[in-house]
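Exercise: predict the fold of this chain.
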Amino acid sequence: MSEWIFPTLSEILAIADELPLSVGSIAASDSASAAQKRVRAEREWFGAIAALETSLRPLMKDDLNGVVLSGPLPVLGQPEFLSKFKVWSYTADPMAMVSSLLFQLPPADQIPSDGETNGETNDTLSLLPGDPLAVEPFCLALTSQFSLVMVLGENQNGDPAFQFSFDPEVVERVWQTLRLRVVLMNPVHLEQMDELYQRFAPIAPDYRLVSKFGQSLLSHLPEPEKPSVSEPRTHFQAQTVDSDSLKGVDVEILQAIAHEVRTPLTTIRTLTRLLLRRRDLPPDVIKRLEVIDRECSEQIDRFNLIFRAVEIETSAMRVATESLTPTSLAEVLEQSIPRWQTQATQRNLTLDVILPQQLPPVVSDPVMLDQALTSLIDRSARSLPPGSRIQVEVSIAGHQLKLQLQSQMNAEQLIHSTSSSSHQMPLLKSLGQVLMFQPETGTLSLNLSVTKNLFQALGGKLIVRERPEEGEVFTLFLPLEPSKSASGMKMI
């Protein structure tokens, strides 16, 4: 038992674990190290978040379909959820952290209401200094069909563990300890939270929903397996390395780094966006905050990509066609190109994007595809001298979409480089089986083998051609959605 004034959520679930069928968890091997147990618990946590989203989607019919409390960072971030559920996030007091910034902000004359925050409905609830809840990821979901609490913390033995429960009694206990924190630090929200709690009071779920949740969670925890040598690869099957080739300690380090980097960056981004909601900020402060927000987002996406690539490489995961969805490449590019232009401008490069008048949908994962393409742009941008050009050309190639990315130095640079060898491609050093390190910039990136596997897991095929003087040419083929005809193409 902790010495904190309130029990942690792990302690509540650990006590409830003594009751039959109260708490669910996936037992780790007793011989596993603490680091291995932590990595496994984190994978279960992320799998449970995906399973929760799957469980919430069928409920999204009315304007308000439930309440989701989480911490120390938001669990639900997609606009589709934020518009249908009331979401609060418990975190360290943002105002106390903001006060430590070097610059002082004038008092806000008017704080925007929930309806005036660009569609965001994720409110922040402050925690007392030293509250262990600030470092214990959790989520409490209350809906008309089920109530669920999930915690990434410790079990009764003090080992890292992920636990969850649909039991209304356990949910009630968790709610009470969360409510006490609101009473102390956020009383302005108490009346609304109490009303919503009464509206979505804890309820025992249909056993089929619990079973489906468990199956969905497990589906995001593929067990390592060794593919048969003679087994043919399909277009949607990712190439994988033998799991023995990625040492457990290397995987643990990579996953730990990804976690330790993403967590503070997400906190910084959350605080930055809270500041940007104020209406009394000077333009220069807004500009700097927007830069912080953009830089944090880029690095969070980078480590999300690394985390996903490690999962693919260590799980020998076969990506089934049903796990990929029709994806509007036009929309992906519409969101991505401005960021790519910014990346190029920051390095004094020119980015040209050549698109056909119409783009049909492809079969992929839109979020990961965006991050993977951005990673290729970043890899090319960091390898070029100022004044160079990056060209992205998209075209239709039969039943596939072809995206080619290549770099070009101008004529003067190319002649000077050829005659004097003054420009050499940046040195890349291998870090284990997954990452490459660029000493000149301190940049981490996925190696080409892992990058190819990642794109294959996203439904595509990446071909890389080396050019001694001007760098790499990336050619990506993505399958077109077969159900869409040319008449359904979207204009760019």
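Check your answer against the key: The chain has two domains: 1-221, 322-491.
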